[in-house]
Specification:
The protein has 178 residues and is mainly α. It has a domain at 84-176. The chain has helices at 2-18, 21-26, 58-62, 86-129, 133-176. The longest helix is centred in the middle third of the chain and has 44 residues, at 86-129.
């Protein structure tokens, strides 16, 4: 019984001491700007500012020279369809067609090198098997023709790569000066 009385009395004393401090703690933020975490514009988006003093006159801030403007258009994203213009679209087509031409020339060049390897192997086989002079002469002529074809294909490939480079630079310039 004695312990129960002590516990009740200590609770009453603690309550009497805490109650006057509650209103004082509630008014501790009375003079401060409590919504400084809401750095957002009128549409609820974060405006990137960390200063809590900006919100006292937000309406005036929007009408300044460099203030936030809430237009319907957005300068960064409005030009997303720039490649829909006819000239730039044609440049994209030229680059694509030239790239396909370069790929075709490389395929032809690889095929010519494969043909050259086959003809050289045939010449070695004919020499090893003791073929006639006429057969060896024809094999050597085929090798010379293959080498001429390879040189012609390499020149075509160089021209196609040059056209591709110029088409890419033209596209790059058109995109830069849109």
């Amino acid at each position: 019984m004695k312990n129960l009385r002590k516990i009740i009395m200590s609770a009453i004393v603690a309550g009497v001491l805490v109650v006057p401090g509650v209103p004082a703690s509630a008014d501790s933020n009375a003079g401060k700007d409590r919504h400084h975490f809401r750095n957002s514009d009128r549409h609820g988006k974060w405006d990137g500012r960390h200063d809590k003093r900006h919100s006292f006159n937000r309406d005036r801030d929007d009408h300044r020279r460099y203030g936030r403007h809430h237009y319907r258009r957005h300068a960064r994203y409005d030009n997303r369809g720039h490649h829909n213009r006819a000239e730039i679209r044609q440049d994209f087509k030229d680059v694509r067609a030239t790239r396909k031409d370069v790929q075709q020339n490389r395929r032809d060049l690889r095929a010519d090198y494969a043909e050259l390897r086959r003809d050289r192997a045939e010449l070695r086989r004919d020499i090893r098997n003791g073929a006639s002079r006429e057969e060896i002469r024809r094999d050597r002529q085929e090798i010379r023709d293959d080498l001429k074809e390879i040189s012609r294909e390499r020149a075509e490939l160089r021209d196609a790569e040059g056209r591709l480079q110029s088409a890419r630079s033209e596209l790059r310039n058109d995109l830069r000066h849109r």
